[in-house]
Recover the amino acids of this structure.
């Protein structure tokens, strides 16, 4: 017989799940849990400075490893602070198990101190959530939470544990099995045959690799299919890295800030194959005008995604890894010379960058210079804004899970704690964060966590002293009325970082930036460099929100073009 209190039971079950790290902040309602965690030899706790930071730190672990990230928060403000990170995980299908403390069950519903309805508030942003009613339920709930977070389409699960349940004693004879990812049913064989037939017949197909390909570990299968039948492959923001950017079939990102040639090719394709992608509006633009000439094959593990936004002529519900694997013997080798040639002509006519844009003190040049200085096994995190889109456009991603970015929710403040999480999961690797001055200020307190943990995170602040991407919309769509997007004070980010105990540098006008970057990247532990970026530097091309992807503003690098 085992006899433990609820808090000890939770910690023991987390150990049995193989959890090695938990990010969080203690408070009155989860102190028994922390007391039990203190006793754990197997789990390291990472004390963050804000619960949102803890949620994103756990996401950094989950996104970089594919395992479920775990975070703790107390009731009331602890729980409300962590909700943004949970919503972010929900929209990007990231496995997360969040355990919150709650006021004792006898006080629930009385407006007790630090009581909020965490269960109610988390319903629409979790894959599943629990309010624990008895200590015995924990034996079932903890493994089930991991199973749910990891199985099918991954996502966050929240467990709200009243304080009295954390202290209540339980005796039981046998430990439950840890929860794990369940095998998924394969796609229908008739549908697979029909999809292969459609691919074989297509003259101008384009594959689109989404985050689902990365979650499913299906990049190899995707590549085999791409190479066997010459499928040019675009990627969603979440899918970047699924095919190395230097692969001859890689078209880069599609959508709002895609290369012109990629969106143009999509306008002409006769078959669009979405693999683990969900037709997000940032990717498709005006959906009725997306791939107007194409039939659609949609592979997804989540049946509710099929034909949600764009009718799928063939739907392959199942693990995308298995679907791609099953398609491989069914498709015929095909060089598709004419189609590839057509795309190459577009790529030559409309290059993503121009020589002027790749000098190191310009955004693209800076990002490319950093990429040259990093090893291929590094991680690249971003925040949200122009710096994120510049990175997505030109960073030479070469493997799945390399790129850590907030896609669906687009959460400023995501970058720093997520980068810390990835670094804690892979201490031997470099992690670089491209952030904006606006985004960094949203979770800047986590500089303290970075220093405390001595993580190998290098922070590159692309500082335009404005909310750049908002300013760009005002430039293009609101008659240059720059209201509430330009900051009025200059912040010395290097001084702030130093205040947290972090080594930091300012890239001053006229400095040798490549050399300074090399110094920063070679520093042991965390380090920040502040790089001034002109406010006028915009991220192009840009499809106006709600417009067709055929309408691309700016970024036409065609040699003789006058647009
Ligand atoms: C939490 C949050 N609030 C507001 C926004 C809206 N928003 C999107 S991009 C952006 C500006 C980002 O500025 P910065 O981080 O400095 O990056 P830049 O665009 O200048 O590179 C804002 C305010 C957001 N995405 N997230």
């Amino acid at each position: 017989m085992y006899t433990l209190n609820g808090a000890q039971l939770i910690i023991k079950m987390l150990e049995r799940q193989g959890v090695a790290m938990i990010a969080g902040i203690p408070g009155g309602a989860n102190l028994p849990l922390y007391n039990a965690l203190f006793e754990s030899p197997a789990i390291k706790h990472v004390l963050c400075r804000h619960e949102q930071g803890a949620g994103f730190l756990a996401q950094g672990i989950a996104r970089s490893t594919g395992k479920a990230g775990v975070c703790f928060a107390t009731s009331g403000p602890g729980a409300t602070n962590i909700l943004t990170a949970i919503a972010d995980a929900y929209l990007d299908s990231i496995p997360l198990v969040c355990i919150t403390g709650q006021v004792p069950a006898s006080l629930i519903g009385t407006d007790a101190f630090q009581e909020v309805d965490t269960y109610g508030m988390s319903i629409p942003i979790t894959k599943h959530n629990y309010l624990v009613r008895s200590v015995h339920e924990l034996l079932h709930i903890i493994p089930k939470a991991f199973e749910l977070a990891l199985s099918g389409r991954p996502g966050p699960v929240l467990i709200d544990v009243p304080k009295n349940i954390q202290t209540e004693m339980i005796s039981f004879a046998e430990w439950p099995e840890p929860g794990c990812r369940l095998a998924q049913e394969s796609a229908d064989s008739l549908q697979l045959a029909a999809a292969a037939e459609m691919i074989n017949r297509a003259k101008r197909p384009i594959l689109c690799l989404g985050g689902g390909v990365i979650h499913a570990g299906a990049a190899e299968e995707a590549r085999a299919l791409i190479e066997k039948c010459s499928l040019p492959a675009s990627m969603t923001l979440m899918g970047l890295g699924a095919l190395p950017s230097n692969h001859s079939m890689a078209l880069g990102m599609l959508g709002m800030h895609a290369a012109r040639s990629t969106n143009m090719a999509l306008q002409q394709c006769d078959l669009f194959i979405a693999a683990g992608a969900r037709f997000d509006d940032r990717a498709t633009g005006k959906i009725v005008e997306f791939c107007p000439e194409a039939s659609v094959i949609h592979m997804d593990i989540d049946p509710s995604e099929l034909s949600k936004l764009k009718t799928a002529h063939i739907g392959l519900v199942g693990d995308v890894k298995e679907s791609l694997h099953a398609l491989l013997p069914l498709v015929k080798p095909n060089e598709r010379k004419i189609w590839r040639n057509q795309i190459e002509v577009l790529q030559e006519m409309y290059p993503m960058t121009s020589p002027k844009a790749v000098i190191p003190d310009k955004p693209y040049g800076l990002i490319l210079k950093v990429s040259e200085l990093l090893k291929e096994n590094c991680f690249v995190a971003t925040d949200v804004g122009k710096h994120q889109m510049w990175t997505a456009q030109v960073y030479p991603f070469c493997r799945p899970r390399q790129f850590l970015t907030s896609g669906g929710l687009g959460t400023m403040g995501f970058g720093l704690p997520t980068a810390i999480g990835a670094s804690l999961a892979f201490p031997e690797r470099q992690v670089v964060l491209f952030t904006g001055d606006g985004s960094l200020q949203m979770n800047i307190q986590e500089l303290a966590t970075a220093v405390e943990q001595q993580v190998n995170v290098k922070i590159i602040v692309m500082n335009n002293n404005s909310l750049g991407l908002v300013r760009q919309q005002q430039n293009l769509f609101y008659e240059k009325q720059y209201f509430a997007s330009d900051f009025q004070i200059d912040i010395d980010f290097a001084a702030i970082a130093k205040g947290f105990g972090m080594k930091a540098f300012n890239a001053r006008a006229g400095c040798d930036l490549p050399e300074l970057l090399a110094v920063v990247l070679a520093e042991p532990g965390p380090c920040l460099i502040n790089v001034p970026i002109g406010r006028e530097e915009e991220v192009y091309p840009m499809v106006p929100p709600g417009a067709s992807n055929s309408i691309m503003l700016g970024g036409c690098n065609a040699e003789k073009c006058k647009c």
User: Anything to note?
Assistant: Residues 51-65 form the longest helix (15 residues). The chain has a mean pLDDT of 97. The pocket of thiamine diphosphate is lined by residues 383-387, 410-413, 436-439, 442, 462, 464, 466-470 (CB under 6 Å).
